[in-house]
Amino acid sequence: MPGPHIAFLKAFILTSSTLLGLCGYAHGDDTSQQPTQVIKLAAEDNWAPFANASGTGISHTIINSAFSRVGVEVESIVVPYSRAVVMAKKGLVEGVFNLVKEKSTEDHFVFGEQALFSATASFYQNAKMPIQAVDKWKLPPNTKVGIIEGYEYGDELNLLPNVQIFELSNHNQLINLLLLDRIDLAIMYDLVADQYIQRMGVTADIKQTFTNHTGQVYLAFSKDNPQAENLAKLLDTGLSSLKKDGSYQKIMASIESTN
């Protein structure tokens, strides 16, 4: 039979173990990683090098990398841009890729403090049928201008005189109609235009002319989503982290290798 001091020691160890177990139960999350939050985003399928039909591109890399810094996992649904915007407005997804911040979009979406990047759009023409104008405000009467349905082209587009707007589904259609002289001009974002003009082998036929605008491009969240403000802040935090260690700069520099 053990002596009194041995019995006391065993009782002390048992009590201590019980207390430690209770503390471990109460604070178990302190030593384990919090579950990752998963969000669904609508990504467009026709805006290389930023977003491709395969679900890849600069925008995907930036958004996925930024959210991964703050414990958020992204599931991207790749659809035509106009459908992506509608899905976000209806709350079918938490946000939409590559929305340009302007009056028409600020009414429906929540934006963070930081844009994904800025993008400049220009007018493009058939080199064999050049437009006689020095800028977009001095276009000839009844100038036919092609754009992509649902895209944002700046608040000034609806104010331009002498313009007939034709909305098309994709960049291949825009370029083909220019080649066929069915439209006089097409507005395309410059880095995107470079991709499609090269792919179609028409660099000698389609030429950039004057600038339309430069837009700030965001991942935008629907105002009907109760988590919109929080998600925008999380994205800002992630973007700041990417920029602080140089990762963002490396991603943007990779655009040069795609052209």
Which features would summarize this protein structure in a list?
nine-stranded mixed β-sheet, disordered N terminus, 8 helices, 259 residues, alpha/beta
Topology readout:
Layout: H1 4-26, E1 37-44, E2 46-47, E3 51-52, H2 58-68, E4 72-79, H3 81-89, E5 95-100, H4 103-106, E6 109-110, E7 117-126, E8 143-148, E9 163-168, H5 171-179, E10 185-189, H6 190-199, E11 206-222, H7 228-244, H8 247-253
Parallel strand pairs: 1-4, 1-5, 8-9, 8-10
Antiparallel strand pairs: 2-3, 5-11, 6-11, 7-10, 7-11
3D architecture notes:
It is a single chain. 35% of the residues lie in helices and 28% in strands. It is an alpha/beta fold and 259 residues long. The strands form two sheets. Strands 1, 4, 5, 6, 7, 8, 9, 10 and 11 form a nine-stranded mixed sheet that branches. It has a two-stranded antiparallel sheet with strand order 2-3. Strand 2 and strand 3 form a beta hairpin. Helix 2 (58-68) packs across helix 7. The termini are far apart. Mean pLDDT is 86; it is low at 1-33.
